């Protein structure tokens, strides 16, 4: 089965429409980020506490939110796992239960005495919801808080993780540098395999993809955590692979039709790869939809980010990266 056989779409001629679409999407994302006071960074980057709890029977999410709000944790974020009767509570730095915190807890929350990655798996599940002797002060506060709100319920602390602000800043810095060096490496590779006039537009298209996806995630009130960073890096890899396939066909056609107008040659090349681009994107989206709907709530944000990235990345390979090469080539020819 072959899609888009012998198509003759004028992608280069309609490039300004594509630029307008990209600008509109970028502006929507930028306005969303500014209006919400910046990115919605997770505790991975700003520091805080993560508590995973198990309830039997499981209270309603609104009841749990009310208990948290009544105890000074109105901004806490919840993630519900109905099949396991579990929830994850994320409390960012600066929020704490409205109760005097012990010096040990304060030291842990500061991030200066607790290293990242320390996770305590607690066998705290009991009929009476009594605190386990092995519980730390933070876990005990959550256990006591919910035990008082839901007497007679079985309540267990599955895990507790604390990330200090200094560690969060370090992780944020590492994430930014990972994206930066990834872009530099791609620019060098594309410049070596093709020409510099291909590498700069390719990186601009990748920045376009990352920025628009990040803006849309902010628009949908999604939290930016390490999983999202992994998704963004995956999107960069997917998009550049798609772009290189198109670039390779452009280079091939330019050699074959050296005397023809460059825009016409690029249109032929893009149309030739259109079927492959469509099939690759469609099959990837089908897999991601399966992961999103059946992979469990933990992986929702990752799958959703990739869904956005595949759509935006496929679009940019055709409507952004290639037309930017055309613009570059046209300016270079005029300068000569």
Give an account of the 3D structure.
The chain is an alpha+beta fold. The chain folds into 2 domains: 15-42 and 167-335, Multidrug efflux transporter AcrB transmembrane domain (Multidrug efflux transporter AcrB transmembrane fold, Up-down Bundle), CATH 1.20.1640.10; 48-163, no CATH class. Helices cover 62% and strands 10% of the residues. It is built from 10 helices and 5 strands. Strand 2 and strand 3 form a beta hairpin. The radius of gyration is 25 Å and the shape is elongated. It starts with 14 loop residues before the first helix and ends with a helix. The model is unreliable at 99-135 (pLDDT under 50). It is a multi-pass membrane protein. GO terms for molecular function: protein-transporting ATPase activity. Forms a complex with SecD. Part of the essential Sec protein translocation apparatus which comprises SecA, SecYEG and auxiliary proteins SecDF. Other proteins may also be involved.
At a glance:
The chain is 62% helix and 10% strand.
Task: Sum up the structure in keywords.
single chain, alpha+beta, Multidrug efflux transporter AcrB transmembrane fold, 10 helices, about 60% helix, elongated
Q: What's the order of the H and E elements?
A: HHEHEEHEHEHHHHH
Give the radius of gyration: 25 Å
Number of helices: 10
Q: Which strand order does the major sheet show?
A: 2-3-1-5-4
Low-pLDDT sequence parts: 99-135
- Residue share in β-strands: 5-15%
Report the major sheet. Answer: 5 strands, antiparallel
State the secondary-structure class: alpha+beta
Give the second-level CATH assignment, the architecture of the largest domain.
Up-down Bundle
At the fold tier of CATH, the topology name of the largest domain is Multidrug efflux transporter AcrB transmembrane fold
Terminal Cα separation, in Å?
Answer: 45 Å
> By CATH's scheme, which homologous superfamily of the largest domain applies?
Multidrug efflux transporter AcrB transmembrane domain
C-alpha geometry = elongated
